[in-house]
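[09:14] KT: can someone run the structure on this one? pasting the chain below
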Amino acid sequence: MKPSLPKGTRDFGPEKMQKRNYIFSHIREVFQLYGFLPLETPAMENLSVLTGKYGDEGDQLLFKILNSGQYLKKTETSDYNQGEKHLLPLISEKGLKYDLTVPFARYVVMNRNDITLPFKRYQMQPVWRADRPQRGRYREFYQCDADVIGTESLVSEVDIISMINDVFARLGLTEFTIKFNNRKILSGVAQALGKLEAEGPLCVAIDKLDKIGLDKVLEELSATGFDTDELDRLKPIFNETDTLDYLSELLENSEIGKEGLAEIAELTHLTQHLSKELNAVFDPTLARGLSYYTGTIFEVKINNVVMGSVSGGGRYDNLTSVFGMEGMSGVGISFGVDRIYDVMEELNLFPDDQMLSTKVLISTFDDESRVVGLQLMSTLRSEGINTELYPEFGKMKKHFQYADKKRIPHVVIIGSEELSNKVYSLKNLQSGQQQQYDLSELLEILKK
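[09:31] RB: done, structure tokens below
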């Protein structure tokens, strides 16, 4: 049988893993710089935890796990005839997690007596979505989340905007834009149009703006019940100028809409006090399709590549309430490592030294030199120098080819001459220079 991978999944060889770890390490360093603590949750959750949190479209993308054992014996023909909603609970109780935020809310509720509020956590784990695979969109992918829960202060949003800037600056991504909006504004727009009950479809449609364009968004809204007059009142929001003035007028009689505008004004004011320039702009067409957002929402795009958002998040006030814990507001951001990787690969932003896992290769030719090589290898490793001993004797050319393919910069040669003089020959594969040193001299050079 010819082996294959499930669609939408990938293997990551050593070269890709080192580049991915480069991204992970910089994101982790920023998370820790801002006071976030690490957390992990299981790959699977009970479906009762996952369903109903992501909207109808999100629920359809959940990977369900069949119950173990003879689950079909517990069903009858009539169960199949009643359709999927009736049958699913009988054959599946668990699913792969769709994101890291809902499991985080579940964790907070279950550990409410053991955490310190506000609780700041970061999480770097894979998630799964039964989506149609395409460039930048996979069925298994990593998310790197940072959330603050237990405070309504917009200082948390300021931290997130600042943190996004720091992450991308460290990765060498300078041409990016952070777009932010507030779901209360979108709720107010729906209310002003007399369509408060259609807030969900409104957000889902607007969230597709970059993918399908304005005309298709309006067509989709028309199909969900928005008439021509309502769509005409909606169109000015998509203009790039004077949208705040128009929104102030449109939301004049919407308390929740005015609250959203006030939060945008406060957030803009607070960010001005940071001692750095932020690539953040207000965008009233930003919607974020997930249904649990209730306040500020974020999305980050790289300006000079064709790629969807590489980061996104927002504030949620009611997520823990579905698990029985009211009044616990939170806000978070998620970095899409897979998309960031693709962007950095396209822009050639990975440093050349990312493949330098081994700094020194020790080359020996017989049992006597191997003993000395093992002793040297142990010494170098104890000094924190990444070292390998080539496992076979063979020709020197083979040793050099191995080092070259692994991009190992130095080879220590231990032959009969080196054994007699109690020295080591160090060859620099980049310059081609080779010179003999005693142990103390060798250590001094390699430490540099």
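[09:33] KT: thanks! The mean pLDDT is 90.
[09:34] RB: yep, looked fine to me
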